[in-house]
Amino acid sequence: MGTSLTAYDVAVVMATFNGEAYVEEQLRSILDQSRRPDILVISDDGSMDATLRLCEATLAQSGLPYNIEVNSHRLGYAENFRQAALSVNANWILFSDQDDSWMPDKIETLLKQASESNALVFVHDLEFCDENLQPLEGTLEERLAAASKTPDSFEKGCCMMARGDFTRFCLALMPPGESHDSWLSKAALYIDRRVFLLGRRLIRHRVHSGQVSGRFTKFGRRERRRTRQLKLKRFVARLIAGRRRHVESLRRALQRHEALIKITEAFADASTQRRAELDCERLRRRVQLAETGSLQQVRAYVPEIIRGTSVRRRELIEDLLFTFGRKR
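and the corresponding structure tokens:
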């Protein structure tokens, strides 16, 4: 899929895979927008049902410019979205799941907010629905609150609109293992928290057994306790696994921060660039400590952590546990 030479104002990118059950309804909700997109890009990951036929039949008579590409091999949903977004040149890019339904004023509302803000990513609320689009309990904002999470921790592409140049730059640098929406959110938050959170519910998010992207569950006290227990179990498992996995984890974090340095150079001020460089240097020292386990390095490392935040102190404890624990 090559990059479109035409510059558009608003593009919608959709990743599809065996979505015949709901894709036509979702496409019609996009076509019925009070402010239509200027182009719709669909990247199909090798559907074996009627998805492609339904997309072509729905869009052929719509009068909306569109592009449908089929991957030669299976990419997975995140890479499928990434490829679609990189293929289009637009000022604003919205991500669409294949099985939701958009409120008629979604694009118009987001563009109005974009005209009044310097944010790089805009995130809105959603309404959870069953397979028949009947409302379920709780909005996104309510479920995040129940899970003791802040709204800016939310990373779901179906609720995002992002600046086109920022999107293309970030996704071109996306490290392995990241998803398109999580990476865009992390990068925008890192750059002076330039994510705008809009409280309005602008899509009906269908929750069903066949969906490809992440699913939400209701969080209560018991679920929060299980989440904490799961995090502890994962940490213990990493501790037992030893230094090798710890080093691999730090190297992945370092790779992300090296990409963030390039992003801050393009979209942030000098102070944010300097913070990115310092964070990257801190990770390099952590990698070096984990690889060598030198007591001299520990002595140089300790004062900085003690003067730092509680997060830095937890990093030191974790590094020491892995560095001088089991070495596999």
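(Above: one complete record from the training split.) The radius of gyration is 22 Å.
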